[in-house]
Amino acid sequence: MNTQAREATLYTLADCAYCEMLKLRLLHERITYLEVDDPAVIRQKGFETVPRLVISGHTFSFDQAIAWLNQRGRPAS
User: Fold this and answer.
1) Which DSSP letter does residue 74 get?
2) Which letter, b or e, does each residue of 7-44 get, where b requires 16 or more Cβ atoms within 10 Å of its Cβ?
3) pLDDT greater than 80 at residue 73
4) 3-state secondary structure of 54
5) What are the tens digits of pLDDT across the range 3-59?
6) Is the pTM above the cut of 0.70?
7) Distance between CA 10 and CA 77 in Å, rounded?
8) How far apart are the C-alpha atoms of 11 and 27, rounded to whole Å?
9) Are 38 and 10 in contact (CB under 8 A)?
10) For residue 75, is the peptide bond before it cis, meaning its omega torsion is within 30 degrees of 0?
């Protein structure tokens, strides 16, 4: 998957340990993203928790994002 061709947005808040963990993992995977850390925008989007990773219209919670990242590197069965 070419992540450079996809638009990624990461919704975060200050003092969020899970947000920091996901940011580090995205950095490690060399996935670029736009970070949005405005609580009003996050509420407007309807997100009750952060982090939320949105890629090509698909929204991932922290656990879902980590599972997706783990799956990326595996060869197809």
Assistant:
1) S
2) ebebbbbeebebbeebbebbeeeebebeebeeeeebee
3) no
4) strand
5) 444 689 999 999 999 999 999 999 999 999 999 999 999 999 999 999 999 999 999
6) yes
7) 30
8) 15
9) no
10) no
